[in-house]
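ok so i was messing around last nite and threw this chain in just to see what happens. nothing serious, just curious
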Amino acid sequence: MSETRKIIHIDMDAFYASVELREQPHLRGKPVVVAWDTARSVICAASYEARAFGLRSAMSVATAKRLCPQAIFVPPHFDLYRQVSQQIHAIFRLHTDLIEPISLDEAYLDVTENKQNIPYANQIAKQIRAQIWHETGLTASAGIAPNKFIAKIASDWRKPNGQFVVQPHEIEDFLHDLPLGKIWGVGKKTQQKMNALGWQTVGDLRQISRGELLNLFGKFGYRLYDLARGVDERPVEPERERAQISTEITLPENIVLRDVPHYLFDLATDLWQQMQRHHIDAHTLTLKLKTSEFQIFTRSQTYSAVLPERDALFRAAMQLANRMPQGEFRLIGLGVSHLQPEGSQPELFQAA
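result:
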């Protein structure tokens, strides 16, 4: 049962921006934006000084420049972020093997049974955060709770560089005044519908019967009924290694399908740079979209020849996006597979 589990959600603080500031300390205290300085790019991360001007992840570079003309743009270094992420995950593995990565900078850990035999998850989280600081010079925030839903919300409670615990008996009070937008899967449209019904908080939602929620929101109504009561039985699921190269971005809020293409150029750029560094060619491209409910949609295309360059990746990704179902999405991923050494098949690029 979820009441017996001890789940920690670790979320690095402004991860990409913090890594860049660590590498370039002369930029500390300035509005730093991690993004390619091009018209088609979006912000990967913003320092806390940049956030004070309203800048945030997934905002277009053009908008960022209007809001903060003095912003300093630093191109992303994803290889470095992955290296630091690997250091952080090595620290996680000192405590548990039940680790579910969400992105490079956040993960769930199930520490119900842990390698150090530490009885309190709060103490484990403190140790992990201290070890991350010692090893990387970066800060992390943590949420500790009996399930993933509550832990994820709690990790944002005392950011940056803090942690928050929600005990089983505290769940109802913790959720009562929580805005509905904090619930997984509740995007702008769903929240507007709820607000129109007079609902503002999770406490309001808890007053609604399961049947009424089912009528209003379909199958998602079942999930809303459980989450309003703090019920989330999903286990922490470790991710298996895959024979592919990939990149992804977790967005601060849900987007609809028509907005997905705005992010594909940056993802294609990062993916192509990875392929170049590893001297790898690929025949298959896969686009992944994930909802806040962790429902995953993928579309793939295999080509008779290797994908020849970045713009080809971008165009292929756009075609895959056109094949996706409508929905609200929180994560966008792009990956290549059917890999081979670079330059081993110089052929024309066409769909298989």
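not much to say yet. The mean pLDDT is 90.
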